From TrEMBL, chain A:
PANTHER family named among the record's database cross-references: SLR0610 PROTEIN (PTHR36833:SF2), SLR0610 PROTEIN-RELATED (PTHR36833)
Source organism superkingdom: Bacteria
Cited InterPro entries: ABC-2_transporter-like
Species: Paenibacillus albidus
The protein's name: ABC transporter permease
Transmembrane segments: 25-47, 59-80, 116-134, 146-173, 193-220, 232-250
Keyword field: Membrane, Transmembrane, Transmembrane helix
Signal peptide: none
TrEMBL record, chain B:
Natural source organism: Paenibacillus albidus
Name this protein carries in UniProt: ABC transporter
Top-level taxon of the source organism: Bacteria
Keywords linked to the UniProt accession: ATP-binding, Nucleotide-binding, Transport
Keyword Nucleotide-binding: yes
GO MF annotation list: ATP binding; ATP hydrolysis activity
Entry keyword Phosphoprotein: no
Domain ABC transporter: 22-255
Pfam families noted in UniProt: ABC_tran (PF00005)
InterPro entries per UniProt: AAA+_ATPase (IPR003593), ABC_transporter-like_ATP-bd (IPR003439), ABC_transporter_ATP-binding (IPR050763), P-loop_NTPase (IPR027417)
PROSITE patterns: ABC_TRANSPORTER_2
SMART domains in alphabetical order: AAA (SM00382)
Length: 262, 326
């Protein structure tokens, strides 16, 4: 089974679906743009009062805001819309059809819904970072770029696995939709700041439990040339661990679902 | 093709007393009870058979169907479908079966039907040429050429069901599980679906297991019936034999000017009003009784029918196979 081919078809059908609602696409884009401008203004106002935030200067924070936009765009294209639909389909029994499809059920559930227009966040974030680098005469090496991309990919996988674990709880509990709403809200609240500015407890929370730090702070640090190899190794290890954990929990959940449905 | 032996399924079901206090208590101290949905049933179905799986609500037929399709793990017993253990959900197994549930939809609501077909072509990894020629064949059989370009939301229920059936057959399954395939459809749409299932079974020698509360589906499609009641298989065999087992009667409806005849001498009077008498007589005595009734000058019309399948099945549900006409 060619998963890339399947993914291409899923993206295609979702794109067609979204084209049915062109007006919605436009309104969403305006809302994203407004949110982005507000985040930049907040940084601007804050740095008119202070010169650095826990060793992060204004430009660093602006790069982080751009990275946040890229990351949120990526997870909103596949992960969040697809996995958010899981509790409903478990309750209604529509999940039966996922299990009857000859494609890996976790892959299919995680990729089923695609919000292609969320790629506009990614593009907006990219343009913004390029703009910040150009206007501040900053530069990055190829290794910075590879490091940032690697951290971004690991961050994406970590958040997808984390979200999958939370969504899998719907196999045990009636409805975990509210729990799934909390995660993007945490990203919204904490993702726009470096995880290092939070006090101990929150830093652990946003690193391991709701991995905002790994997903946004580390790729930014990698791009700004301040990440060390032990952070990279730890992130890759954490990523592999979460893949394994989410796989185990998914399989246990599916087994339980099959036992519960009638 | 399908072999089931001592198939059993036990569910753990949460229970609680009524009221808010009990609801809160159950949050911390949940109570469970075991429900035996299927109690060790066994049957064997050959390739190409169309078999009805019947039973009242809660009898265990959907659980059985889901065990056959690999959605529910049997608690005990042996099960093989096409040589596979269904619950392992091997890709080859999933490609060889299809489960259609009349009350669920898989077509994308907003898009033209053909877009959903294209997606399923990729999900089932069907080669382009094979897909196109088979789709053309299904479109012709179902007579839906004019609607597949339209968004699903603009189709009638009958049209949607036709397209759902095509979608579930695109990968040419050898075993078809149909759960209430004609639910909510008008008579013409029901007839079309039944004809299509018959034709698909004939052309591809496919095995079809169907559950339906619509006895027209069963009468028209199935020679063999499996009846499940309270989790037990109470009958497995020919439809005709079932009719003979629980009904040795014929039903006669007599229209007459008056009610002067003593009908009790012929059989059991089921109803008598406004010159319409409904009578149950012994099938073996029909040739003797019917002429006797017809010689009566008050009789205007007489209508002789077998006991309808709906009633036969109801008798099996209520009395088992030991039904004795009163």
């Amino acid at each position: 089974m060619d998963l890339i081919k399947v993914l291409k078809s899923i993206v295609g059908i979702n794109l067609l679906n979204e084209l049915q609602y062109k007006g919605d696409f436009f309104i969403q884009f305006i809302s994203v743009l407004l949110d982005f401008v507000l985040a930049i203004l907040t940084v601007d106002i804050m740095f008119s009062q202070i010169s650095a935030l826990n060793q992060w200067n204004k430009v660093d924070i602006l790069v982080l805001v751009g990275m946040y936009r890229i990351f949120v765009g990526i997870i909103n294209v596949f992960t969040i819309p697809s996995l958010s639909a899981l509790p409903g389909s478990v309750i209604s029994g529509d999940f039966d059809y996922v299990l009857l499809t000859p494609v890996d059920s976790q892959f299919f559930t995680s990729m089923k819904e695609v919000r292609a227009w969320k790629l506009s966040d990614v593009i907006l974030g990219l343009i913004f970072i390029i703009y910040i680098y150009a206007t501040n005469e900053l530069s990055f090496s190829l290794s910075n770029l590879i490091g940032a991309l690697l951290m971004l990919i690991c961050g994406g996988i970590i958040v997808a696995c984390f979200y999958s674990i939370i969504a899998s709880l719907s196999f045990w509990f009636n409805d975990v939709s509210n729990l799934l709403i909390i995660i993007p809200q945490c990203f919204e609240w904490a993702g726009k700041w470096p995880v290092t500015i939070f006090p101990g407890f929150l830093r652990i929370l946003f690193t391991f439990l709701i991995p905002v730090g790994v997903a946004i702070t580390l790729p930014t640090q990698a791009l700004l040339n301040s990440i060390n190899s032990s952070d990279v190794a730890l992130t890759v290890g954490f990523c592999l661990l979460l893949i394994l954990l989410s796989r185990i929990i998914w399989k246990m959940g599916v087994k339980r679902y099959s036992g519960a449905s009638s | 093709m399908i072999e089931a032996q001592r198939l059993k399924r036990v569910y753990k079901v949460a229970v609680r007393d009524k009221g808010i206090k009990a609801a809160f208590k159950s949050l911390f101290q949940a109570k469970y009870t075991s429900v035996e949905a299927v109690k060790g049933i066994g049957f064997s179905i050959a390739r190409g058979e169309i078999v009805a799986l019947l039973g009242p609500n809660g009898a265990g037929k959907t659980t059985t169907l889901k065990m056959l399709a690999g959605l529910v793990h049997p608690s005990e017993g042996e099960l093989a479908v096409n040589g596979f253990k269904p619950f392992k959900r091997d890709r080859s197994f999933l490609k060889s079966i299809s489960l259609l549930m009349g009350n669920r939809k898989r077509l994308n609501w907003n898009l033209p039907v053909v877009d959903s077909f294209e997606l399923y072509k990729e999900l089932y990894d069907i080669p382009e040429q094979e897909y196109q020629s088979f789709l053309d064949e299904l479109i012709e059989l179902m007579d839906v050429a004019e609607i597949i370009q339209r968004p699903v939301r603009n189709l009638s229920l009958g049209q949607r069901m036709k397209c759902e059936i095509i979608l579930s057959l695109l990968h040419k399954p050898q075993v078809l599980f149909l759960d209430e395939p004609t639910i909510g459809l008008d008579n013409i749409a029901q007839k079309n679906i039944r004809n299509f299932i018959k034709e698909y079974n004939k052309r591809y020698n496919a095995t079809v297991i169907i559950t339906s509360h619509n006895m027209d589906d069963i009468e028209s499609l199935c020679k063999r019936v499996l009846i499940i009641n309270r989790g037990e298989l109470v009958y497995d065999g020919d439809m005709k034999r079932l009719t003979d087992l629980v009904s040795n009667e014929k039903r006669i409806v007599i229209t007459c000017k008056d009610n002067p005849i003593n009908m009790e001498q012929y059989g059991t009077v089921q109803s008598m009003e406004d010159g319409r008498i409904e009578l149950l007589i012994e099938r073996d005595r029909a040739v003797e009784i019917i002429p006797a009734i017809m010689t009566n000058p008050w009789v205007q019309d007489i209508d002789i029918t077998n006991i309808p399948l709906t009633e036969i099945i109801e008798r099996v549900y209520t009395y088992g196979l030991s039904y004795e006409p009163k």
